[in-house]
Amino acid sequence: MTQSQTRAETRADSGARTVGCDIAIIGGGPVGLTLAIALKRFAPGMEIVLVDARPLAVPKDERSTAISAGVSSVFDAIGVWAPMAKGAEPIRSMKITDSGKGDLYRPLFLGFEGHVGSGQPFAHMVPNRITAEALIGAITDCGVEVIAPDKVVDRDISNPVKARLTLESGTTIEAALVIGADGGRSALRAMAGIDVIRHDYDQMGLVATIGHEFDHDGVAYEHFLPAGPFASLPLPDRQSSLVWTERTKDAQALMALDEDAIAREIEQRMGSTLGKVTLKSPVQGFPLAMVLARSMVAERLALVGDAAHVVHPIAGQGLNLGLKDVAALAEVIIEAARIGEDIGAPDVLERYQRWRRFDTALMAMVTDGMNRLFSNDIAPVRIARDIGLGVVDRIGPLKKAMIGHAAGISGSDGPKLLRGIGI
Amino acid sequence: MSDTTINPAEIDRFNAMADEWWDPTGKFRPLHKFNPVRLAYIREKVIGHFGLDGLAREPFKGLSILDVGCGGGLLCEPMARLGATVTGIDPGDKNVKIAALHAERSGLEIDYRAVTAESLVEKGEQFDVVLNMEVVEHVADVDLYLSSCAKLVKPGGLMFVATINRTARAFALAIVGAEYVLKWLPRGTHQYSKFVTPEEITSVLKRSKMTIADRCGVSYAPLEDRWRKSRDMGVNYMILAAKPRGN
Questions:
Q1: Are residues B43 and A161, on separate chains, in Cβ contact within 8 Å?
Q2: Looking at the whole model, is its pTM more than 0.90?
Q3: Does the distance separating the beta carbons of A347 and B107 come in below 8 Å?
Q4: CA distance B45 to chain A (A)
Q5: Which of A45, A168, A257, B46 has most Cβ atoms within 10 angstroms of its Cβ?
Q6: Tens of pLDDT, residues B80-111
Q7: What is the ipTM of this complex?
Q8: Which of B55, B78, B105 sits opposite A340 (nearest CB)?
Q9: What are the residues whose beta carbons fall under 8 Å from the beta carbon of B99, sequence distance 6 or more?
Q10: Residue numbers in B near A332 (CB within 8 A)
C-alpha cells in the first residue's frame, strides 16, 4: 500500500527483473485463482502477482467436482458463478446407505432432501474444465499479473517488511505477503520450514466417470462399504462421477482389470439403483493421506488449500475447505489493508490462522474418524453406526446441522464470501 | 518550548519499553490488539467527514494528520499507508527514533519529532486531523493539553480522543485486571486518579469551540480476543470532535 509496495519493475542488464507487489500468490489452481480474483474484486488497488509452475491453461480434465452451496456463494460473490452454473448439474438430494458389497437392496439410513435455503440445491457437480475456464477468464480480466510457467526456488525474509522470492527464470518478486496455494506438496511450506502432521492410510482413492441405465434424478449416493466410502455424484445425461476408496492392494488389482470387469465391480459396489454401468473414463487412483500443516502461517506467508491441509476425501471437503480458507484470508487481508495495516504483519496473519485452524483440524478429525468408523465390517460397530445414522435421520436439528456443514454454510459468524456477501 | 504538560516519570517508563513497541506478542500486545478497532473508527469517520473515496487505495491522500503521543508509530504507519501526510510527535526521544527507523524500513515517509503539542501551537502549525489516542490518561494537565490540541486542528478539521473512563469498572478492568491479573500491561502503566470522564473531555473541547460529532465505547470480547465498538463508555471510549469552519 506504500510506494515500496506498489508494483515497480526494474530490469537489470542481465535480463533478470524484479517485480514489486502487495501479494504474491504461488499456485494457479482453483484455490489460488479464486483468492486472486476475490482480492482484486474487493480491493482493486491491490497489486497481485500469481505464479504457477505450469502454463495457465484449461486442463484436459474430464472430471467434475462437487461444489457445495457455501462455495458456490463464494464464486457468486466474485462474479464467476454464472458461467459455471450453466454447465453444472444440481445435486438435489443425497442418500447415504451402509451396506455390504454386493447387496442389491440398500436400506436408506440417512437422506438429505432437497434444499438448504431459498430454492438452492445443497451442491452442484461442476466439470473441472468449466471451473478452470471461468476462473482463468476472470483472472485475465481483473488485472492480476500472471507469471507462468515459472517456479519459486528461493524465499528470503531477511527484510522485515517484505519477502523476496527468486524464481527459476531469475525473476525476483518482492511482496508484503506471500500466499502458498501450491498444493499438498507445497514448496513454500517446505521453504518456510513448516512441519506437517501426516497420516498415511493403506487406502487409495479411486475416481471414474460412468454411464448408467437409469436416471439418477439429481441424487447423490454415498454407500459406506466395508472397504470405505463409495460416492456417486450426478452428472448430466445419465452419467455419474464416482469417488471411492479401496485398500491399496485391492485398488491395484481392480485397476488392472479390463473395462467390462471394472464396470461389473462397480455395479456390485453401487447396488441396483442405477442399473447397468459402463465406464466413460479410465479409473484413476491416488494414495490417501491426511496432511495437516502444523501452522497455516509463517513470516510473511499464509498457506491456503491443500498446502495447509489435505483431508481424507470421504466427505468431499477438500476444495470446500480450501475455498473456506480463501474466504477467510481475503476478508482478513482486505480489512487490514482498509485500515492501513501491514497486510503481512504477524498479528494480521494470526487472525487468519485463528479463524481457520479449528475448522480445519475438526474436519480432518471428523473425516478421519468417519473413515475409521465406516471402513470396517465388525458387526457390533456396524450395528452401532447404523443406529447412530438412523437416529440422526430422525432428529431434525442435528440433521439440519449436518446438511449445513456438508453444504459449507454453517455458522453466521463465518467469512462473508461464504455467505455470498461482498467484503 | 513549553514542557508543562509532560510528567517526567511517565517519559522514562515508556522510553524503557520503546524497543518492544513493534512486537505484537510483546509488552505492547494489548495496543496491537486494540489497534484495528480504533483504526477502523478513524477510517470510517474521516472518510465520512471529508467525503473521501472509500474504494481508493489511498483514501487519505491530501490530508494532514497529527498523532500526538505517537509512541513507536503504531497509528502513524497505517495513516501513512492510507495516503495521509503524517506527523507524529512524542516527548520520548527514543520512541521517536525507533518510530522513524521503523517507518524507513517500511518505506513510509513520516515526520517524527520529539516535541510537545504546546510547541507546535507556538509555531502555529495546524492539521486536518489530530489524533489523541490513549494519551490523555498520561498527561499532567488535561485541560491545558486538550485545549492545546484543539488549537492544532484546522477549521473544518477533526480531533479524535480515545482514553479510559474514571469509573469503578475501569479501575477493576484497566488496572486490577490488565496490570495485576492478566499482566497485559506493566504495573503502574495507569493511575486511577488520572483517568478522565467523557464529560470532562467534552467540556474542555466545548470551551475550545469544538463540537462533539460522535462518541462510543470500546469493549473487549474475551472469547474472540478482540476489541469491538460498543455503546458502553464505562471503561474505554472514543470521542470525535469537529472544529467548525471559520473558527
A1: no
A2: no
A3: no
A4: 12
A5: B46
A6: 999 999 999 998 888 888 888 888 888 899 99
A7: 0.86
A8: B78
A9: B21, B70, B71, B72, B73, B76, B88, B90, B110, B112
A10: none
